[in-house]
Amino acid sequence: MTKNYNVAVLGATGAVGEQMLNTLDRLDFPIASLKLLSSKRSAGKKITFKGEELTVEEAKPESFEGIDLALFSAGGSVSKALASEAVKRGAIVVDNTSAFRMDKDVPLIVPEVNEHALKEHNGIIANPNCSTIQMVAALAPVRERFGLNKLIVSTYQAVSGAGSEAIDEMYDQSRQILDGQEIDPQVLPVSGDKKHYQIAFNAVPQIDVFTDNGFTFEEMKMINETKKIMEDENMSVAATCVRLPVETGHSESVYIEVEKEGLDADKLRRILADAPGITLQDDPSQQLYPLASDSKGKDDIFVGRIRQDLDEKNGFHMWIVADNLLKGAALNSVQIAFSLVKLGLLK
Amino acid sequence: MTKNYNVAVLGATGAVGEQMLNTLDRLDFPIASLKLLSSKRSAGKKITFKGEELTVEEAKPESFEGIDLALFSAGGSVSKALASEAVKRGAIVVDNTSAFRMDKDVPLIVPEVNEHALKEHNGIIANPNCSTIQMVAALAPVRERFGLNKLIVSTYQAVSGAGSEAIDEMYDQSRQILDGQEIDPQVLPVSGDKKHYQIAFNAVPQIDVFTDNGFTFEEMKMINETKKIMEDENMSVAATCVRLPVETGHSESVYIEVEKEGLDADKLRRILADAPGITLQDDPSQQLYPLASDSKGKDDIFVGRIRQDLDEKNGFHMWIVADNLLKGAALNSVQIAFSLVKLGLLK
């Protein structure tokens, strides 16, 4: 007999929260009760889940009484304030913010890559950054067989990663430009940063604020999280993160150098074709390759444009695309919850 | 006393042709007479140059009688048919198509990189591919001092590189999507290829058709042309070329490994700040970095986001942006013409 769990979703009214609810429903997570939580501002909203209308409540420490599993996606400061309160009350928290990702006591999980690390959790489990998840999940099956020495990624990221106001800004700005009107950027590249730039019909090489070494936080997340998830501090990882006028679907141009000899593009394709959660879309003769526009609403990670480097025989190029709100956020969080159940870690 | 030249522009009615005329005017190229040539279809159109109305004529072999300098930008097949006819009649041809770029008897020129190679011309000089020009021009000053072993580029290319029908498709499609209408892609990624995909609010990893090795022609152009211009067959070069919904302005995420020790990000910035034709835009504290939207109509190549790799001390990342119709095409062609004059090669 399957046990059912008391589940809370914090940030239920946001873009990722909405996808979390869809995913819990769609994948039929064993729910005994569902509590929807948000900031005070969004409290009172009604959301229908499996035919039942639920009212969103303001999240407080005592909201987590009796909760087994809490999925957090309401921003880093909310996670910092409430995660330990939830854990104190017996919940396991799966946190989709960057608040705890690099804490050494917090496992950072992509189930198909490092599910085993869940066993060392202390109540909080972190869901990696969207752009990291799709990349490590696509590379893990290759790395397992051939090792991985070096990784260089340039991203083509969708605005939905910056929230619904960024989506609105992109569409409003697009219309203004088409109509020959002036634009007045207010949100992107980073809502809290000093300057804002045109995103419509543009490519902006800044996601999140800058760190002291000239890399952005988004780039450092990709670098540090990849090493943590792959449990290899010596791997060479570099990232350049770029925001595009795409609503949903992150694309990534990835170069890797594997450790062992003997890999070629066909072998790499076969490895990915057999990997769960990955759809190989790679047939140049049919112009078949992953597109952001095709990825929206899909659970899988799409990989194509696989080419052996012309100079470095252990070097390979590929194009990795996924729905940043699903595998990049909500789906991965729910998959972590399923892994917790499977491993008997959710009591 | 400066000599003036009889100049012909073939493809005068196209997007690049228009920029060629603007550039000849703006940089005050010493013109004795100007002849505008095109396909039969566009012949008869009127174009005003320096206050004088000129009629576009259909290009024929005899059109080049008495011409000293012919700038070609009317497609590869037109160049193949007419370049030798122009040369036979005493003209020097600067060809902006891919027709002759890899011919070993044809110099492939970016003046600030390999102007000296003009001396070996046999009548035809090739202008490189737009995405190649801005990259090699930005890297040349670094390479001169520190050598260059390895180069990996991921591009973010504008639709104007695919002609005016691609620009129209991008804007029309954008409006259709904003209005909730169906779209019907007919042009991009490659007008002559079998399948066409959404370009608005998307990122398409195909520019030009595919070659047998899985790289596209655009990618192979960047690889082969870079080696030819830099006169180094042993350099490791790789490219992934992606089309974006940007009208004009190619952006490139470039990773290089230099040969000699001792380069750091500050030194790299100083080298680029001092290089002619390059504008350094690199101040993370002010969110200053190159943007495609700022590059339109500008002659310079813009470089920013310069970072030393965190693992490879000779490795550097940067973001290179330029107007693909100017430095990427028309401006470089006119600069080649000025170099020919300077070197006494244009009689």
Automatic annotation (TrEMBL), chains A, B:
Q: In which pathway does it act?
A: Amino-acid biosynthesis; L-threonine biosynthesis; L-threonine from L-aspartate: step 2/5; Amino-acid biosynthesis; L-methionine biosynthesis via de novo pathway; L-homoserine from L-aspartate: step 2/3; Amino-acid biosynthesis; L-lysine biosynthesis via DAP pathway; (S)-tetrahydrodipicolinate from L-aspartate: step 2/4
Gene Ontology molecular functions? aspartate-semialdehyde dehydrogenase activity; NAD binding; NADP binding; protein dimerization activity
Instruction: Identify the residues that bind NADP(+).
Output: 13-16, 41-42, 160-161, 324
Q: What is its EC number?
A: 1.2.1.11
Q: Semialdehyde dehydrogenase NAD-binding domain location, by residue? A: 6-121
Q: Quick one: a GO biological-process term for this protein?
A: isoleucine biosynthetic process
Q: Record's InterPro entries? A: Asp-semialdehyde_DH_CS, Asp_semialdehyde_DH, Asp_semialdehyde_DH_beta, NAD(P)-bd_dom_sf, Semialdehyde_DH_NAD-bd, Semialdhyde_DH_dimer_dom
- Gene3D superfamilies assigned to the protein according to its UniProt record, in alphabetical order: Dihydrodipicolinate Reductase, domain 2 (3.30.360.10), NAD(P)-binding Rossmann-like Domain (3.40.50.720)
Catalysed reactions, semicolon-separated: L-aspartate 4-semialdehyde + phosphate + NADP(+) = 4-phospho-L-aspartate + NADPH + H(+)
Main EC class of this protein?
oxidoreductase
Q: Which domain of life is it from?
A: Bacteria
Q: Which residues form the active site?
A: 130 (acyl-thioester intermediate), 250 (proton acceptor)
UniProt subunit comment: Homodimer.
According to its UniProt record, which protein family does this protein belong to? Belongs to the aspartate-semialdehyde dehydrogenase family.
Protein name as annotated: Aspartate-semialdehyde dehydrogenase
User: What is the species of this protein?
Assistant: Alkalicoccus halolimnae
